[in-house]
Every structure is written in C-alpha cells, then in structure tokens.
Amino acid sequence: MSFSAYVDSYPITAYIVGHLGLSVSDFCRRYEFDPTIVSGWQTANRSVFSLPADFVECLAITSDKTADQVRCILRLLEKQHFAYLATSPAWNITPFQLVPPVSSQKTQREEA
What we know:
This protein has helices at residues 11-20, 24-31, 35-43, 53-63, 67-87, 95-98, 108-111. The longest helix has 21 residues, at 67-87. The chain is mainly alpha-helical and 112 residues long. It comes from Enterococcus mundtii.
C-alpha cells in the first residue's frame, strides 16, 4: 500500500513516516493501536513525555533502537514541531486573538 511521503511536523507522525517508512495507519494496524487514538494525540498536541510506554516500545522495536533512544528522537522532533508552530502564521495565535472584540460581547440584559 502506498502513502504520501509528506510528513507533518507532529513528532509521532514525523517519526513513524520519516524514520520507519510506514504510514501511521499501517503502524497502528501492525501493533494493534487504535489509529483514532493516535490521531487524537496529534489533535490534542499531546507531549511525547506523556505517551504510553507500550507505544514507545513498539516504536523502538520497529526501528531497532532502545526506548530511550526513541524518546530522545521524539523530544528533538517535538522541539522542532513547537518551533514550527511558533513561527507559522496559521498557528501563531496570541491570547489577544482568543478574546472576541468588546463590540461583539453581549451583556446579560441584551441576551434577555
């Protein structure tokens, strides 16, 4: 089965596709992980520090590395990922941008 060689910057995806040469779905199928859970980690921007040990062990087995080596590589990829998000205009959101303008905020009287 072929898959896109494009690798997004999320560390797990970057490691699986870039280092193992597998798609995330193929990796999940091979090691019986639910791909929706793995993609949920990406959506939630879950840190590599909080990944389940068995997931990291499977990455290590597939890549012929130790779990510590895999964690080290994932941490480096995570640093690059966050650096990318900080410089990407689409993701560089400041707290000011999260607050709606005052003119669009309704008081309790206006809502009643």
